[in-house]
Design brief:
Length: 195
């Protein structure tokens, strides 16, 4: 199976690659259109701000390439946020694959960014969360989030509920870092790779 991690220029690609390798796969880091489009599974990782990431994706001509993908794609952290239609972080348009915005979190008196372990509640029976107990803990680092919407497949709460995982057609996204989330994260990556 061809597993590709998209070389977005705005992510810690090594940690995702290592987590995938631990599951017995040999991922390739690339932004070559032929390699990306030929892949069976594609990871879209991202860290940093949405506006800076969209600028890099535009410079690397990756926006039409991502939108052309028909295989399962998993956006991680900022990679998930980029699937939305817009982000308040830098007031920027994002990929527009999911018809929902990314908003600054309102966490009451809790510190921002939301950083650390939090429990995630998936939709019953969703394949991405197969073998993961309801309320399992995953590792988050973010100050912006997608509100719960029609594409939400799991939510979490930090001050208020937010989307922890999302699906629109062949595009999946997780707000947390599965590669830093122990056994639950490894199981989620395995589920995605075995879809």
């Amino acid at each position: 199976m061809e597993v590709v991690i998209l070389d977005t220029g705005c992510a810690n690609l090594a940690s995702v690659a290592y987590a995938v390798k631990r599951l017995g796969y040999n991922p390739v880091v690339s932004r070559d259109p032929d390699i990306v489009l030929r892949s069976d599974k594609l990871f879209l990782p991202g860290v940093g701000s949405a506006s800076a990431a969209m600028k890099i994706l535009n410079e690397r001509e990756l926006i039409p390439l991502i939108k052309a993908c028909t295989q399962p794609v998993l956006g991680i952290c900022l990679g998930m946020q980029l699937l939305a239609k817009s982000s308040e972080e830098g007031s920027t348009d994002t990929l527009g694959i999911i018809d929902a915005p990314i908003k600054q979190m309102k966490a009451d008196n809790l510190p921002l960014p939301h950083m650390g372990w939090n429990n995630v509640n998936p939709l019953a029976g969703h394949h991405l969360f197969r073998g993961i107990e309801d309320g399992a803990y995953f590792y988050f680092v973010h100050g912006y989030a997608m509100p719960v919407c029609s594409a939400t497949i799991a939510h979490s709460t930090y001050g208020e509920p937010f989307t922890a995982a999302v699906q629109q057609d062949n595009f999946f996204g997780v707000q947390f870092h599965p590669e830093r989330s122990g056994q639950a994260g490894a199981q989620l990556l395995k589920n995605f790779l075995e879809m």
